[in-house]
Design brief:
Chain lengths: 251, 310
């Protein structure tokens, strides 16, 4: 029946997703289902199409073929801001803070622009301030509320990036290499944060090269190589998959 | 400060400045003051798109001339009072801003800048070939010598431009402290991140272009009555575009105060230079000051003041 809400357990359904840049096939017939509440790791060598997939899911890029459904709603052709309002948020691989705004104002933007579009929710200034304080406490940036992004350290910048994504109150968070370039203990910091979000009911897709973090976090692992999905399953099985080993280690 | 309070204070400032100006007996003051105030409107309007949103508009003269020439048309057809001309000129320039935004705002940065410049040139070519508004020969507008209550007509024009400046400043300030201002700042800083944060970037850019263009058109609407002889090369003068960019740069682009300070500072210097030295010195002055400020005070006069008071 057209228009009926799909009664599957999947929060995100991707079917036959394709994207090419000129003659180069960046994504080839990707199929993927993510259930509500899952913690999924997305791995693959550099240039395998992970970021392109994130960009197509979040609406930063248009996919050439295939379909994406989120919580039963088709996303095809929707601009990025509408997807964010539906509850699909992302963080960027290279942090993109609003550098002319303070840290707390950075969080105001998603609060102002997404909350208004949720049913019955019109945030008062006091509610916005309270929500900002809560988010800053969550990422331990409460001492830096009035700082400018340029005064933040690398890890603080990553935390701001995550907090801003969380300010949109998403159902699904796609964290694109949120830990790249961080030290061991900083990686643990971000991991703890992601676990906390997951416990709060947010579905998380983690794109990461740091295998220790991916293995610790993921309930399920998806591996992309050269724009194709070559493995999808329990993490220990996926990393033992001969195709995955070949992609990472060579013949 | 609450927004309503700001509008009220702006209105009071307009009344106070006008009351003070009644003490001046020399009409030249009103002619010069009109030009400075006109630049307050243009610079503030330019800054809504250029400073808040981060899109550089080289077509200020085009929007300005839309207002001026719509007044010429209405004057020849019907001759309505100036406030009506301002509304029509503003609406027309706003609509053209919206249309141009639809065509160019999907592109980034430099393409938009080129588009605005091209628009001004296309419009100028149209006007040059349109006989009804005088074509390249230009057109004479006979204005009444006096106005009831106010006396000389230039006093009336001065009051009109003063009120428009107040309106422009109040609009700019309102944008700054509402959701719209946050959205525009996000767009200026990073458009992709803004989209990801739920900001409808295209829609906000169109609103910004429309408001900016409308205010520029409003500033141009009384021009035919001020100059009494309008030809395309003065209506579309590049000096409007250059000044509208230079004034916010010199004053500071982050808040409504910057363009106002820049316009008063640069506008007054230009008026003084025109009288005391020579009018052709104007653009040279703009150039020199611009270089000085870009090198010594990249955040404008506001930046200098903020640096002094930590």
């Amino acid at each position: 029946m057209p228009g009926a809400v799909a009664v599957t357990g999947a929060l995100l359904e991707v079917e036959g997703l394709g994207k090419r840049f000129g003659g180069f096939v960046a994504l080839d017939e990707i199929a993927l289902e993510i259930g509500a509440g899952e913690r999924v790791g997305l791995i693959g060598p550099n240039g395998s199409g992970k970021s392109t997939l994130v960009n197509c899911l979040s609406g930063t890029m248009r996919n050439d073929s295939g379909r994406v459904r989120f919580a039963g709603t088709p996303l095809d052709g929707l601009p990025a801001h509408k997807r964010t309002r539906l509850g699909l948020a992302r963080s960027f691989q290279l942090p993109k803070p609003f550098h002319s705004l303070t840290v707390v104002q950075n969080l105001h933007v998603p609060l102002l622009f997404t909350a208004k579009h949720r049913a019955g929710a019109h945030l008062t200034n006091a509610e916005i301030d309270a929500r900002c304080a809560e988010l800053l406490r969550m990422v331990a940036l409460d001492g830096k509320a009035e700082a400018r992004p340029r005064d933040l350290t690398q890890i603080e910048m990553r935390k701001l990036e995550l907090a801003r994504a969380m300010a949109a109150a998403p159902k699904l968070l796609i964290a694109d290499e949120a830990m790249a370039g961080l030290s061991n203990s900083e990686v643990d910091d971000i991991l703890a944060l992601l676990f906390k979000l997951s416990e709060a009911g947010v579905t998380v897709i983690l794109i990461e090269h740091i295998m220790r973090a991916v293995m610790a976090f993921s309930q399920r692992l998806v591996c992309l190589v050269a724009g194709r999905k070559i493995a999808d399953g329990a993490p220990p099985e996926v990393v033992r998959n001969p195709e995955v080993e070949r992609a990472y280690l060579g013949e | 400060m609450r927004l309503g309070t700001f509008w009220l204070l702006t209105a009071l400032a307009v009344v106070a400045i006008f009351a003070a100006s009644r003490l001046v007996t020399n009409d030249y003051f009103f002619f010069a003051g009109y030009v400075v105030l006109q630049y307050v409107v243009l610079a503030t309007a330019w800054n809504i798109l250029g400073g808040y949103t981060g899109y550089i508009n080289f077509g200020t003269a085009g929007f300005f001339a839309i207002g001026a020439y719509s007044s010429v048309v209405l004057h020849k057809l019907w001759g309505p009072p100036i406030p009506v001309l301002i509304l029509v000129g503003g609406a027309l320039a706003g609509l053209i801003g919206l249309g141009m935004g639809c065509l160019t705002l999907r592109l980034k940065g430099v393409f938009f800048a080129i588009g605005t410049l091209a628009m001004a040139i296309v419009l100028q070519t149209l006007v040059i070939n349109w006989d009804f508004v005088g074509g390249s020969r230009g057109v004479y507008i006979i204005r009444p010598a006096t106005v009831p209550l106010l006396g000389t007509y230039i006093h009336y024009l001065f009051l009109v431009m003063l009120a428009l400046s107040g309106l422009a400043v109040a609009v700019a300030r309102s944008i700054e402290c509402t959701t719209l201002g946050f959205g525009l700042a996000a767009i200026r800083d990073d458009e992709q991140a803004a989209e990801a944060a739920g900001v409808p970037t295209l829609k906000l850019k169109l609103i910004s272009t429309m408001l900016s263009g409308a205010l520029m058109g409003m500033a141009g609407a009384p021009l035919p009555y001020y100059v009494t002889y309008l030809d395309p090369s003065s209506g579309f003068n590049l000096a409007y575009a250059v000044n509208a960019i230079a004034m916010p740069l010199i004053g500071g682009m982050t808040s409504w105060v910057g363009p106002v300070l820049g316009a008063i500072f640069l506008g007054t210097i230009q008026q003084a230079a025109t009288v005391m030295i020579e009018s052709s010195l104007n653009l040279l002055l703009v150039g020199v000051l611009l270089v000085l400020f870009v090198v010594a005070a990249p955040n404008g006069i506001i930046g200098l003041c903020r640096a002094r008071s930590p």
